[in-house]
Amino acid sequence: MRVTVVWASAPRTVQEVALDLPDGATVAQALAVTGWDLGPLDARPGGLASSVWGRRVTPDTPLRDGDRLELTRPLRVDPKVARRERFQRQGARAAGLFARTPKR
Q: Rounded to whole angstroms, how far apart are CA atoms 19 and 1?
């Protein structure tokens, strides 16, 4: 079976590899075949998460032909907090689409 494994090792950097695996191979086996040094990232709590087509999976999940296995790093900043901070920096006058009244 053919599986694609994708990992963003750093911002704006994506590594992708297509693997030929035996039927019934698991997520953990696919990661072992890639040869990528995930080391401490995978071991610590909140480290790498794995998903197949965007759905979270565990290391013992069996893969199917054509699956796309994605490894994701944890978020550094909560998106809600980042948006709030951006809004505070730019001020209310430049708040976006509804800040200005339309001309008539």
A: 8
Closest CA to 61 of 93, 89, 29: 29
88 pLDDT tier (thresholds 50, 70, 90): confident
Q: Looking at the whole model, is its pTM more than 0.70?
A: no
- Per-residue pLDDT tens over the stretch 30-77: 988 888 776 654 544 457 788 999 899 988 899 999 999 998 877 777
Q: Please tell me the distance from the alpha carbon of residue 48 to that of residue 60, in angstroms, as a whole number.
A: 15
State which CATH number among 3.10.20.30, 3.40.640.10, 3.40.50.11540, 3.90.1170.50 fits the domain covering 2-74: 3.10.20.30
Tell me if 21 sits within 8 A of 29, measured CB to CB: yes
